[in-house]
C-alpha cells in the first residue's frame, strides 16, 4: 500500500489550483440515469471515488467516455449516456466500497420505476443509516422493501407521484436522492428542512439545465414540479470547498501564504470566518482566496453544523492546525458520532487533545514531531498530512488510499508550494 512521506518544517508559499468538488461530482454523476441523452460533466476531479462511481454506472449499462489526460492537471471531462439501462441493481461489492453508491437509488427509481441497491454498511466516522433516504422516497410515492441486505424501491404505477416530505434531520444524501427522484415524478413535490450545501445547489443547477422544474434553490424548502422527460446537457462541477479549506489550514499550520485558485469565498464563509478568528489573513482575490499566516494561529471555538455552518468535513483539518495555536481551542462535532479518529494519531505526533463525547479540547501550542501514522478515513488522513507539514522531522502517513478518495494530486499540489513530500509505493 502506498504511503505519503513528509519532511516537515517548510513554510508553504505559492499557488494551488483547486479541483472539482468530490461531493458534487458524486451526486452529478448519477443524474446521467435520468435521461437517455448524453450528459457531459466538466471539471471532474481525478479521484478514486469518481472512478468507482463510473464503474458502478457502467455496471448499470451507462456508457462513459473520458476526455482529458488521465494524469496531469488539465481538467477532465466525462460524457455519460444511459440510453439502454441494462440493470437496476447496484451490487454489494461496489456499494460497500463507496457509500455514495446509494445515490443511484433515486434517479434509477425515477427513470425505471424500480431500483435495488445493496444497503451501504457503516464506516469509520459513524453508523450512517439511510432511513431518511427511504422515508423521503416513500413520501414521494415509492414502495420500499428491505431484504437480504438490499433495499428495493418500486413505483407502484411505474412512475412515482411526487409528494411532500419534511426532513427531521438535515441530510445531504437524502436530499440529493429525493431531488433526483422528484424531477421525473408525475406531480409536484416539496422538501422541507432540505440540506442547503453548495453541492445541493450544484445538483439543482444541473437538473434545471436538464429541463427539471425546481424552485427554492439554495433554500431549505425545495419545490419540484415533475416533468415527462429530461434532456442531456454539459455542466462543470463546482470547485471543492473542502479542498480549499484543507489547503488553507496548510498555510495556517506552516506559517505560509497560499493562493487558492478557483475557490468561491461565498460558498465557505463559515470556514473563512473561523480562519480569520484564528488570525489568518484571508483575501478574496477575484480568482480565488489568498490565505496568509504570518504568525502562529490563535485558538478558536467551533461547532460543526449543516450548511451554512462550519462543515463537519473541515473539523479534522482545523483541529490539526489548532494543535500549534497559542492557547486552548474547543471543537464540537455535532454531525457524526465518531469523527475524532484522527485524535490518537495526532497525539502520537505530540498534540495535546482531550475528547469528551462530541467535544474536543485542543491545548496549544505544541511542537509536533514526525511519526509513522495510520489514517482511518479521508479527512482524518488529511489532518495527519497537515500535522506532518508542521512537524519536526519525518512523517509517513500510511493507507494513502483514503487520501486518494478525496484529494487530487495531493503531493504534486503541496510540492509546488514548497513542501518536501512524496508518495512512496508500499509493499
Ligand atoms: C455527505 O454525506 C458527504 N458525502 C459527507 O462528506 C459529509 O460529511 C456529509 O454529507 C455532511 O455534510 C458526500 O456528499 C458523498 P448526511 P451524507 O446524510 O450525505 C444522519 C467527506 O468526507 N443520517 O448529511 O452521508 C447521518 O448519520 C464525506 O467528503 C441519518 O440519520 O451525510 C449524519 O449523522 C464524509 N439518516 C447526519 O444525518 C439518513 O438517512 C448527516 O448525514 C442519512 C443521514
Describe the fold and architecture.
The chain is an alpha/beta fold. The chain has helices spanning 22-28, 48-59, 92-95, 105-112, 131-139, 172-182, 198-209, 241-254, 269-277, 315-322, 343-348, 378-390, 401-404, 410-415; strands spanning 3-7, 13-17, 39-44, 63-67, 76-81, 89-90, 114-118, 143-147, 150-154, 164-166, 188-192, 213-215, 222-225, 234-236, 257-261, 281-284, 288-292, 301-303, 328-332, 352-356, 359-363, 372-374, 394-398, 420-424. A four-stranded mixed sheet has the order 22-23-1-24. It has a four-stranded mixed sheet with strand order 2-15-17-16, covered by helices on one side. Strands 4-5-3-14 form a four-stranded mixed sheet, covered by helices on one side. It is globular, with a radius of gyration of 21 Å. The chain is built from 14 helices and 24 strands. Helix content is 29%, strand content 25%. It has two domains: 3-19 and 239-424, UDP-n-acetylglucosamine1-carboxyvinyl-transferase, Chain (Alpha-beta prism); 22-236, Enolpyruvate transferase domain (UDP-n-acetylglucosamine1-carboxyvinyl-transferase, Chain). The mean pLDDT is 95. The protein binds ligand EPZ. Ligand EPZ binds at residues 22-23, 26, 100, 126, 128-133, 169, 171-174, 312-313, 335-336, 378-379, 406.
Structure in a nutshell:
The chain is of the alpha/beta class. It contains 14 helices and 24 strands.
Count of individual helical segments? 14
Bin the helical content. Answer: 25-40%
Unique ligands: ligand EPZ
Structural category:
alpha/beta
What name is given to the CATH topology of the largest domain?
UDP-n-acetylglucosamine1-carboxyvinyl-transferase, Chain
- Based on the coordinates given, report the CATH architecture of the largest domain: Alpha-beta prism
Low-confidence stretches: none
What is the general shape?
Answer: globular
CATH hierarchy class name of the largest domain: Alpha Beta
Radius of gyration: 21 Å
> Taking all residues together, what is the mean pLDDT?
95
Beta-strand residue percentage = 25-35%
Amino acid at each position: 500500500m502506498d504511503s505519503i512521506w513528509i519532511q516537515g518544517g517548510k513554510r508553504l508559499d505559492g499557488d494551488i489550483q483547486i479541483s472539482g468538488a468530490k461531493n458534487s461530482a458524486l451526486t452529478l454523476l448519477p443524474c446521467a440515469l435520468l435521461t437517455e441523452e448524453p450528459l457531459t460533466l466538466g471539471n471532474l476531479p481525478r479521484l478514486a471515488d469518481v472512478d468507482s462511481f463510473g464503474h458502478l454506472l457502467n455496471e448499470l449499462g451507462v456508457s462513459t467516455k473520458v476526455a482529458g489526460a488521465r494524469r496531469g492537471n488539465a481538467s477532465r471531462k466525462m460524457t455519460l449516456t444511459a440510453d439502454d439501462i441494462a440493470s437496476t441493481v447496484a451490487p454489494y461489492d461496489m456499494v460497500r466500497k463507496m457509500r455514495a453508491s446509494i445515490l443511484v437509488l433515486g434517479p434509477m427509481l425515477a427513470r425505471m420505476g424500480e431500483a435495488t441497491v445493496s444497503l451501504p454498511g457503516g464506516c469509520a466516522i459513524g453508523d450512517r443509516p439511510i432511513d431518511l433516504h427511504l422515508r423521503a422516497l416513500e413520501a414521494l410515492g415509492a414502495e420500499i422493501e428491505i431484504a437480504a441486505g438490499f433495499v428495493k424501491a418500486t413505483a407502484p404505477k411505474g412512475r412515482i407521484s411526487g409528494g411532500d416530505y419534511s426532513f427531521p434531520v438535515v441530510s445531504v444524501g437524502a436530499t440529493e436522492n429525493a431531488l433526483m427522484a422528484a424531477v421525473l415524478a408525475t406531480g409536484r413535490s416539496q422538501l422541507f428542512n432540505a440540506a442547503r450545501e453548495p453541492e445541493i445547489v450544484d445538483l439543482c443547477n444541473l437538473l434545471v439545465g436538464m429541463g427539471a422544474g425546481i424552485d427554492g434553490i439554495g433554500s431549505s424548502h425545495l419545490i419540484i414540479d415533475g416533468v415527462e422527460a429530461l434532456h442531456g446537457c454539459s455542466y462543470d462541477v463546482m470547485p471543492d470547498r473542502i479542498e480549499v479549506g484543507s489547503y488553507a489550514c496548510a498555510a495556517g499550520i506552516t506559517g505560509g501564504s497560499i493562493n487558492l485558485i478557483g475557490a468561491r469565498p461565498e460558498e465557505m464563509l463559515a470556514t473563512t470566518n473561523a480562519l480569520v478568528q484564528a488570525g489568518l489573513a484571508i483575501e478574496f482575490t477575484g480568482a480565488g482566496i489568498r490565505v496568509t499566516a504570518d504568525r502562529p494561529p490563535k485558538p478558536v471555538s467551533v461547532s460543526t453544523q449543516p450548511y451554512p455552518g462550519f462543515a463537519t468535513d473541515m473539523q479534522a483539518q482545523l483541529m490539526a492546525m489548532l494543535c500549534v495555536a497559542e492557547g486552548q481551542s474547543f471543537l464540537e462535532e455535532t454531525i457524526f458520532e465518531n469523527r475524532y479518529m484522527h485524535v490518537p494519531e495526532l497525539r502520537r505526533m505530540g498534540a495535546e487533545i482531550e475528547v469528551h463525547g462530541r467535544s474536543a479540547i485542543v491545548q496549544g501550542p505544541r511542537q509536533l514531531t514526525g511519526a509513522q501514522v495510520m489514517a482511518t478515513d479521508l479527512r482524518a488522513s488529511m489532518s495527519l498530512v497537515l500535522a506532518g507539514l508542521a512537524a519536526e522531522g519525518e512523517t509517513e502517513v500510511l493507507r494513502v488510499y483514503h487520501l486518494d478518495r478525496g484529494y487530487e494530486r495531493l503531493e504534486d499540489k503541496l510540492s509546488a508550494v514548497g513542501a518536501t513530500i512524496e508518495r512512496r509505493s508500499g509493499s
